[in-house]
Amino acid sequence: MINFTVGPVQSDPEIREIGREDVPYFRTPEFSALMKENEEWLLKLANAPADSRVVFLTGSGSAAMECAVMNLFGPQDKLIVINGGSFGARFAKICDIHKIPHDEIRPEFGCGVTEDDLAAFAGKGYTGLLVNAGETSTGVLYDVEMIGRFCREQGLVLVVDAVSSFIADEMQMEQWGVDLVFTGSQKALALPPGISLLMMGPRAIRRAMEHETESLYFDVKDYLKNGERGQTPFTPAVAILIQLHRRLEKIFAEGVEKERARVRDLAADFREKIKDLPLEVLTKCPSNAVTSLHPTGTRADGTPVKATEIFSVLKDEYGIWICPSGGDLADYMFRVGHIGYLTTEDNDRLIGAFRDLMRRGIL
Ligand SMILES: *Cc1c(COP(=O)(O)O)cnc(C)c1O
Predict the structure, then answer these.
(1) How far is the CA of 124 from the centre of ligand 1 (A)?
(2) How confident is the model at residue 300 (pLDDT cuts 50, 70, 90)?
(3) pLDDT, tens digit, 9 for 90 and up, residues 128-155
(4) Distance separating alpha carbons of residues 285 and 111, to the nearest angstrom
(5) Which DSSP category does 329 fall into?
(6) Model-level pTM?
């Protein structure tokens, strides 16, 4: 199979090889040293300010979403949630569950937020803002730098979900004023799912230390304390953390910009090659991580082609996974990811399959 989903994605064979080994015991100085390096590299990747820390959480990206919100905010807060798709909606749901007052900005489908959208929320007693840097359900990349300026002016704590955009798109924690940014292991880091990483700036750390979090597993105070000696409070997904170490080592050996350029060029190559296909790009400001597409063709019987059918036929007859969409949009759109161990030749195989589907009246 060739995997063009947005996670889990394909891993470098060298990283996969590590997954074949037995999982080692981890309360050792050797593992602690590896974790300290992981922390240092991740903070560098995020361009984090001095005195930032990383929380290594065993759980998928949604665990990081909930963990970030419940450790920094409570019923005394008032948050702005940018809700432009299913991941924005998840932030809102987390606020509901934890009884955190919030209001939503709902950008039009496939669009970013503007300074005017934010200006309407100025001076109204908000204390924080939650945004998915990349809203993976639509493929939109929000302008976090602009959002950061607004938050700075208004004194808001800024939490950024970069689960799919981390590495694929730029992240300048310090320059943009991001207090906490998190990602997951199975997106552009191209590791197995199971680990999420929360990069916390000094203000987020301070807030979390003063915050009473009603949870055993999700209280970051415990993680920050154990992290001082390169450990986690509970047994982590040890193997993935070792794979993470190898992956980061390789990224820094080759240069971070090179890895980002690889994803960006792969996305650009794909977007160029589909220009004459009956596929409408749905996003005005796309992340490098993913392209959202609406197939515009009609079938022999005059009905519109179906994204769900394209997904199934590619999977069952061509050995290719694209990323289906859920809910009301399932027949309307699908997505093609550009993260993970993919090449432009893989793009060519996908385009070739698309052309074949056109001949067969499926695309
Ligand atoms: C994938 C993703 C998540 C997390 O999803 P999990 O299935 O819990 O790993 C969160 N936010 C965004 C923007 C994502 O792309």
Answers:
(1) 30
(2) confident
(3) 999 999 999 999 999 999 999 999 999 9
(4) 7
(5) G
(6) 0.98
